[in-house]
Structure formats: C-alpha cells, structure tokens
Amino acid sequence: MTDEELARAHLAGDREAFRELVVRYQSRLVTLLFRYTGDQGIAEELGQDAFLRFYRALPRLDLSQPLKPYLYQIAVNAARDSARRDKSNELGLDEAEEVASVSWDVDEKLSLEGALMKLPLIYREAITLHYQLEMDYAEIARALKVPEETVRTRLRRALEHLRAIMKEV
Amino acid sequence: MEERLKQLPLRAVPDDYADRVTRHIARAESRPARMANLLIASQIAVTGILAFLAAWMQSGEMISLFDSILESLNGATNALEQSGSAAVNALANLPIEPLDSLAPYEWLTLAIIAGIIWLFANGLLIANIRKENRA
Known about the structure:
Largest sheet of chain B: none
Radius of gyration of chain B: 30 Å
Number of strands of chain A: 0
Oligomer: heterodimer
Radius of gyration of chain A: 17 Å
Shape of chain B: elongated
Strand content of chain A: under 5%
Structural class of chain B: mainly alpha
Distance between the termini of chain B: 41 Å
C-alpha cells in the first residue's frame, strides 16, 4: 500500500494503518532528528511529537499529494521548535558558518557520519534530506522554507565542507 | 562522496518504537477528550439541577422560599435603617421587591434562558478544546 492509501485507511478507521506509516518512516525520521540533536534519545522523543503532529494534521491533508515531504517538513519544524524552546541548545539555525556543537563519540569522528555531524546544522539537514531521505530540491525548499537555489548552494557548500573535514581526519 | 552519503545507514530505533509512538498519540489525544467529557458531565448535571429548580418553582414552593428570604432581608435592612446610616438607607432602598412578584412561569422562563446560556457557553468551550486538539 502507498502512504496515501494507508492514510485513507487510517481516516476510514483502520487502527493499524497509522502504525504502519510509523513503522515505514520511523528510522528516517529519527535519523533526520538525530542530525539536529546529536542525541538518539532526544531524537526519538522529537520523533514521537512529529508523528503526533502528523496524526493530527492528516484529516486536513490533500491525499492526492505525496505525504512524505509533509511528514519531513513536520519533523524539521518539530526539531526547530525544540531548539527554540531550549535556549541552551547550541544548534544555531540561522548562522551558516556556525560550527556544530553536538557531542560525538571519538571513534565515530573517523567515519563519514562523524564528519557529517561536524558540519553546520543547515548543511547537515540539507545533506540528510537530500541524500538519506531522497528528497528533491523543490521538496527540501518547501520543508526548509527557503528558495530552491539556496538548497542547491547549501548542498554544494556542504559537500565542500565535508570533503575538507574528511581530508583533515 | 555523494554515493557514500546515499549509502549511509539510517539510525536504528528500538523494536517497540512504533508502539511507543502510538501510545504517545493515544495519551495526547485522550487528554482533551477527558476534559470535554468532564465538561459535558457537568453540563448535564447543571442542566438537570436547573430543570429541577424550574419544576420546583412551578410548584410555588420556591416563591415561598424567596418570600421568606426577602422577609428576612427586609427585617435586617429595617433594623439597620433604624441606625440612621446613609449607606444603610441606600441598601434598604435596593429594588428587591420585583423578585417577589415574579410569577412561576416567569421563573421557568428565566431558568430556561439560563440553561440555554449555560449550554451555549459549554458548547463553545468544548468546540474550542476539540479545535485545539486538532491543531
């Protein structure tokens, strides 16, 4: 079944349909949220909130459109809201050159994922959305509420930064 | 580099994560529902009390009760009036007599109007809770 078919089944009263959507997207959502928090536990909690927002929004969504971008957009918003609420959170959302401040295990610093976590947040989220969650530029632009050209620029710079970090290691 | 990024594994989640999510949703959804149920229950209770009072007033007993209350009030204000205080005079002149002259059907009308206002206010409150719940 497609996501949209599952959503229709859920709205028609099928109790298992929404759970199936959760199972389908849980890892991707937690991966995305982990990029913001650097903490698996917090990412899982934010994921629960994102799924709750999605659940509440479903009756109002246009099911003739793909649901996936909308779900990711909700997750991005949930992560950003959480960062705003938590004043002590050091993840800057607007400073492109801000260095990521999430804690990271020493061993993982040697991996690509470790290098990814050293990127500024705006590059990390763009890379995750594009390469891991397979969203196209237009979908990322909608989710992040920025022009498509900005998405291209961020992805290009993100790759440059990433290559530089990997060379340092 | 791009190929390696595409092949990065996704984060693993606990086996019961989907159950945790559905429980989290169920808890969040039941909170406003419980509040709405409480409001509906109190609404039914108050409406019942209003209906009971209206029926009682129809029997004329309420009029007698109000009569005795008004008599007590009049007695009290008369006693205070004798003290000669201007404030007491103002209190003594409060227009409480019209209550005494209300016919039973007028009491019933007042009770029904109060009931309708109560139902309307609670309806708005419940609708608002459900709206917040959907937001």
